[in-house]
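Lab notes, practical 5.
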Amino acid sequence: MTEISASTIAPGGPRIIPRSDHPVSRQSISPNALRVLYRLKDAGFQGFLVGGCVRDLILGRHPKDFDVATDALPEQVRRLFRNCRLVGRRFRLAHVVYGREIIEVATFRAASAPSPGLEPIADPDAEEGEAEELEEEPPPPSSIHRAHDQSGRILRDNIYGTIDEDVWRRDFTVNALYYNIADFSIWDYVGGIEDVAAHRLRLIGDPETRYREDPVRMLRAARFEAKLGFELDAAGAAPIPQLRQLLAGVPAARLFDETNKLFLTGHAAASLKALRHRGLLEVLFPAVERYLQRHPDGLVEQLLWRGLSNTDERVQDDRPVTPTYLFALLLYGPIAGAIEAQPPEHWHEQHAILAATDRALREAQARVTIPKRVAFGVRELFALQPRLENPRGRRALRLLEQPRFRAAYDLLALRASLGLASAAAAAWWTRLQEATPEERAKLADATPAEAEGAEGADSSEPAGSAPRRRRRRRRRTGSG
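Output from the prediction step:
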């Protein structure tokens, strides 16, 4: 990170770091974000880049998205941009849409408002990133105030403010830096510049109060530890053991969104480590933590770590990742545990596999909403495992056309790499995908011989199970 030199101190206000003393360049900012900022400025409004994008630009990283803060009201922003829609019921935000890029514009809020992650509220069955869209009417008068629940969690906050107030409702100092389009300076009210340089996570205000206002800040702390490699300071870490159960009161749909941010943005393995270190996994996914504690360093835990690492590699290579495959990884242990709780003679029956999958999904949904499309996808991945392990002639070719085939194959290959499935079957499907149509037909005809030759290599068993008798080899499960 480029060293930031001494800056101007505005009496009673921010420390203002001029353009000559910081590394943020307009060349690194999204052209669409610059369009939004300049139009706000030209219309007589303040316009600032704010939050993680400023932090990442200082660190020399490329931000995933760019957020804007302004003194313009949402309705005023909408009048400036034809490509603007207003979202959120509890607090209105403006989304300025440029193709696939959305520039989120938030009006300055008064202190103690919820973090940006709280609004808008996503529909759990909508695609990721979609949010509730409002019509023309303003919010009802009864909603224009702040409300807390008995634990101190903010339920509603519709109080607009100034930039001097807005900064105090943000969560971490490193996320409270403002880039001013008027003169290209950075405004720092809370020592965020020093914390970025020190790779330190520090909450703004009293940590216990801030966690009570929004318990998801505990998950955000773990996520930033994982994503940035920063360390949460002692004051921010101390209240988590006593307050982590407050996450049970957070809307389950919001926790689904936070789960995706933790595990599908390129730092999944580090996120799991941070969640377990802070004791947060047992609140977010209790059954997963229980299984890992009962089977420390077992094959299922190795599968989870390896699968999450593979997911991180896909993100880094700009390849697609899905919540379906993620939840199949996270719930693998609880599913295996539910299968092993049944008599061994039922372990490899498909109805037993699906019953165990449904049970694990229900337990997880007690805390985290799992949209139907994701839950159905997880069921399909596990239902396909026996069919992939026991391909039957040319009928196996039709599996290549299944929408979930590729994810199911990836799960099979992952299991096989740890000895939890037939390595020969995984290799056969790999060859089949690479083969020409004529070669595929020959491979399909050779399937029975291939399976027979793999007899000695097959170890497709639930974790910890006893060896299986040969007569059951055609009813293997994907439980691992």
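Observations recorded by the TA: The chain has two domains: 8-198, 285-475. The radius of gyration is 26 Å.
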